[in-house]
Amino acid sequence: MIEVNDLTKRFGDFTAVKGVSFRVGEGEILALLGPNGAGKTTTVRMLASILQPTSGSARVGGMDVVAEAREVRHFVGMLTELPGLYSRMKPLAYLDFFGELEGVPPSLRLERSRELLTLFGLWEYRHLALGHFSKGMRQKMALSRALIHNPKVLYLDEPTSALDPAGAKLVRDYIVSLGRAGHTAVVCTHNLAEAEALADKMAVIKEGQIVAFGSPEDLRKKLLGPPLYELQMVSLDGYLPLIQGLVKLESRQGDRVCFRALEPQRQNPLLLQRLVEAGAEVVSLSEVPYSLESVYLRIVENSSSGSS
Ligand SMILES: Nc1ncnc2c1ncn2[C@@H]1O[C@H](COP(=O)(O)OP(=O)(O)OP(=O)(O)O)[C@@H](O)[C@H]1O
Ligand SMILES: [Mg+2]
């Protein structure tokens, strides 16, 4: 659905996006992560035909973002980073206005507006001018605007940055449901848990280049190595050699050890069996959940993407 080839954007002497290439399939959700100023917003603006690339190309729904910019703009929905709303307008008039711009038939506009405002808990505020909306309410309004024409492709630049936890979850769940319904989305976010909850694929951008791409699971495997397990015993005394004979010990704290297993399906049951046979009392054996933050920090700190 989205094909990006060697996409580059220069602002004067400064190269904000340096030859980025990736693909997003239909119904897939891609999370774009990366430090401030990495080039995420610039990338999605080019993919929405709002900003013209300096070089390289991108196709969205088969359409070229430069040659068919107008068509692309109508085909996609975009939630910008700092959405401006018309402060004197009220929600329904606002959505009706953008619905009309996007060519939504009049009869559908009200129905769709009501649906979105209800979904985001804004229906009861429909008589209030947008200027009086809170920050989070504005973000939900801008999101409703991006969704008014039910676009096949969505670009959401930090869609939950102003939302409370319940609102953020609502929006995330909705994005996931859109993906299941066959919509494609690119979501810029600084929230790693969000990226993981939402995305089929993640791309980490640093200094205008993609330094990591893959599913959250792929990235973890690539960067953190084999999974870590924690074994808790009533008493570890005397059993350490047996454990070390089977798995790679990482750390020990009292009667608890952490180890890595390359083949956990084979090694972990064997370890338990041997321990039990030797008379050990095992309290628990569980995988230590990895932190996506540690993966992300490792990517961003270790990758050197060169200079422009
Ligand atoms: N119109 C512009 N003129 C000059 N420089 C620009 C322009 N737009 C963006 N930049 C620069 O391009 C770089 C990338 O900006 P961009 O907004 O894409 O970053 P980002 O990854 O979205 O960051 P953030 O996480 O802070 O939103 C920044 O250094 C920014 O200053
Ligand atoms: Mg940005």
> Low-confidence segments, ≥5 residues, pLDDT <50?
none
What topology, given as strand order, has the largest sheet? 6-7-8-3-9-10
Give the ordered list of helices and strands.
EEEHEEHEHHHEHEHEEHEHEEHEH
Mean pLDDT: 92
β-strand amount = 25-35%
Helix content: 25-40%
Shape: elongated
Are any ligands bound, and if so which? adenosine-5'-triphosphate, magnesium ion
Named CATH topology of the largest domain: Rossmann fold
- Secondary-structure content class: alpha/beta
User: Going by CATH, what is the homologous superfamily of the largest domain?
Assistant: P-loop containing nucleotide triphosphate hydrolases
Number of helices: 11
The N- to C-terminal Cα distance equals: 29 Å
Q: Could you describe the largest sheet, including whether it forms a barrel?
A: 6 strands, mixed
Number of strands: 14
Count of discrete domains? 2
Radius of gyration: 24 Å
Secondary-structure arrangement, i.e. CATH architecture of the largest domain: 3-Layer(aba) Sandwich
Broad CATH class of the largest domain:
Alpha Beta
Short description:
This protein is 38% helix and 27% strand.
Description:
The protein is α/β, with parallel strands linked by helices and 308 residues long. The protein folds into 2 domains: 2-221, 3-Layer(aba) Sandwich (Rossmann fold); 228-287. Helix content is 38%, strand content 27%. It has 11 helices and 14 strands. The chain has helices spanning 40-47, 69-75, 91-101, 106-119, 135-147, 165-180, 192-198, 216-224, 240-246, 264-277, 292-302, and strands at residues 2-11, 14-24, 29-33, 55-60, 63-64, 76-79, 153-157, 184-188, 201-206, 209-214, 228-233, 248-253, 256-260, 282-287. It has a 6-stranded mixed beta sheet, sandwiched between helices. The model has no long low-confidence stretch (mean pLDDT 92). Bound molecules: adenosine-5'-triphosphate and magnesium ion (MG). The site of magnesium ion has 5 residues, from helix 1.
